[in-house]
Amino acid sequence: MSLLMFYERRTEDVTVSYICDHPFPSHVHDEAEIVCVTAGTLQLTVAGMRREMFPGDIVLIFPAVPHSYDEVSDDIEGLTWIFRPDIIPEFSRNFRTMLPCNLFISPKEQAPELRQIIRHLQTLSEAEIEPLKTGYLHLFLSYVFARLDMQPLDKNAQPNLIYQVLNYIAEHFTEPLSLESTAHALGISRIHLSHIFSQRLHVSFRQHINSLRVSKACSLLRDTNISISEIAYMCGYGNPRTFHRAFVAQRNIAPNQYRAQVTKHNGEKKEPIPNMIPPVEE
């Protein structure tokens, strides 16, 4: 793996955006990523497999899989979906325990409905997309997994140790993890695990754990009426005070203020904004 690979920390549950229009170095993140090319060409490397993508091609990148945008044509167009697998519980286990036999999906291998979903998203404004992100994602994944050949993930045979580390933590971050217990579970030394975070991912072990826990807390604060104290314990914190400190460090706002802010925002009527994504040309 290239030494330029880095860990990308994200805070959104789900993001729909333009396809990346410039080269981007090898990186990993805890979210899954879907890339849909509608015009131009894109050379993408995923888990060491380099592939040139053409209009109509889709790639499904699983969490903690290294990938890079190597060459991007000037006329590139398309969509990128980046999302936390657990926001779609029906498929979250697939993302943690399975791997597709082929990450890249050509137009002839796709359900016709996928093209319709992509076309519709490209004609919506950003304001219109916001409330539809999760719903369209659920529908999209339903069609993809119905046709995707999957194989169980053999973690002991997985050559990429970083992949193993990030996946293990993604499955256990609500538990009382420590550097020592995680290293023991993965069969490596504490020093080796610390080196992976400091030298390869450029983030500390504790910062990474807190990032996952706070992201989960944001979802619970936004979508449920569960008390803040209970959310703290649900997300793996020993007490609300530790949770409060970690939340403020990650989001620069207290948990109760975040809940009040998103509640007010969700209750306001949003004004339409200009279309941010160009429609697909026939």
Descriptive notes:
This protein is an alpha+beta fold and 282 residues long. It is 43% helix and 20% strand. It contains eleven helices and twelve strands. The strands form three sheets. Strands 1-3-8-5-6 form a five-stranded mixed sheet, with no helix packed on it. A hairpin with a 2-residue loop joins strand 5 and strand 6. The protein starts with 5 loop residues before the first strand and ends in a 15-residue tail after the last helix. Residues 269-282 have low confidence and may be disordered.
Terminal CA distance reads 40 Å
Shape label: globular
Largest sheet: 5 strands, mixed
What is the beta-strand fraction? 15-25%
Number of beta-strand segments: 12
Furnish the topology, listing elements before pairings.
Layout: E1 6-7, E2 14-18, E3 24-28, E4 32-39, E5 42-46, E6 49-53, E7 58-61, E8 67-72, E9 77-83, H1 89-97, E10 98-100, E11 104-105, H2 112-122, H3 126-129, H4 133-147, E12 150-152, H5 161-172, H6 179-186, H7 190-201, H8 205-223, H9 228-234, H10 240-251, H11 255-267
Parallel strand pairs: 1-3
Antiparallel strand pairs: 2-9, 3-8, 4-7, 4-9, 5-6, 5-8, 7-11, 10-12
Helix pairs in contact: 6-7, 8-11, 9-10
